[in-house]
Amino acid sequence: MSQQLSFYVHIPYCAxxxxxxxxxxxxxxxxxxxxxxxxxxxxxxxxxxEIQMASQVVGPAVVPTVFFGGGTPSLLPAAxxxxxIGAIRSNFTIEQGVEIxxxxxxxxxxxPFLDEIKSVGxxxxxxxxxxxxxxVLKTLGRTHHPESVGQAVTMAxxxxxxxxxxxxxxxxxxxxxxxxxKSLEYAxxxxxxxxxxxxxxxxxxxxLAAQVNxxxxxMPPDDQSADxxxxxxxxxxxxxxxxxxxxxxxxxxxxxxHNIAYWDGSFWWGVGAGAHSYFKGKRWWNVKHPGSYQExxxxxxxxxxxxxxxxxxxxxxxxxxxxxxRREGIMHSRLNxxxxxxxxxxxxxxxxxxxxxxxxRLVLNRNGRLIADRIVRELVL
Length: 381
Description:
alpha/beta, TIM Barrel, 42% helix
């Protein structure tokens, strides 16, 4: 059986930096260029060369998933993204039924873009909705209006996309339970088959962190964030969305196969500035700045910045950390006696699914998902 290799393609450009974002993204102004088309053309040239490098390192492989993330992939001309898809097809074998996902912003996506990228093989759209409340979007520094999400979803469906997902963020400063419920209900009114919900994390160095530190904004209490997660899970399940990972729910057949590849230990190659990769026990990440990345590529050098070789112990700990986040959970046979004993304590405390335990699997129940990080820490220490 041929080895499999998923691809993540990082597009490091945004029209405006959101206040909470610490991702490796740049505005044209930060790069001292007002011409995104010119920036993107040379950047895509470099990503294609890296894909060629990947084929030399990996050898023959079948590609089951491709994910364009960012940044804002939908800011680039569809023809540029199509070149990347073409390069992957030229250098690897594309799996029949391949999943090709694009992250898009509601206010930077158009019907012609969606039609064109669908025509070259894209199958899935992931949309940054974040909230349906204008004041929350303003706090987060988002540029779209709530109603533009529905318009963008309608366009994606009209272009023939079978899978459409929206991302939500809860726990923003000033967001009430009523605000969150409004966002949930609006998201569930859309023609989507996948939804993600993430708790806001205030990252150092962001505009939001500075506002919180100055006392201009106040973060909600932790117990409110827990209540928001429980409300989301309740409403999603009632609407036919089942959780398959801590922060992800889908209708039947709507799971994001690319993300599952991360969680189940599959190999992936991250293309682009700052992208991370994992292949045969080695994890590495590229230089972060797009200029430095392109310079390395132009010299025929690997864009790798640093790497780590994972030991069997590292791999086992990561397996537990990632698999615990999934609905399938962990077979008892993958745990040692000490870990099973600790897990049994959490079972007795009401944090694990009892039916799954009887089937010799460790699976978090709804309350257990609220303390997943704590349970993982206990198991891997």
